Sequence to fold (116 residues):
Amino acid sequence: MLHANSGIELTSMERDPASGEHRLRYDPETTPTSLAVVAATATVSNVETTDLDPLFESVDPDALDALTTSQDRETTGLRISFDYEGRTVTVDGHGWVRIGEQAPESTENHHAMVSD
Fold:
């Protein structure tokens, strides 16, 4: 088990060498998705969670948690993608956080996308 510097437990981490994407697993029954995103981003970036920008500057943490904890999350293909800390982050209701490689120079072009 991985323990992010925030105290949030991430149960596994793998990296796709072709895309550079990191996949981190957390327990959605005990950890809010918003906290898992911050912990996973800090882990991948090798920084403290307090060194990161507040998540609410990229996405509404309450809405993120509500969407990924709905009763139907296990039966839907819900995926939410947004930019955070110069990386594209994708989460689902199954306990996975996917974090893309950091862009060379992050721009202020923020986006968020929900797909089902």
User: Anything to note?
Assistant: Residues 69 and 79 are 12 Å apart (CA to CA).
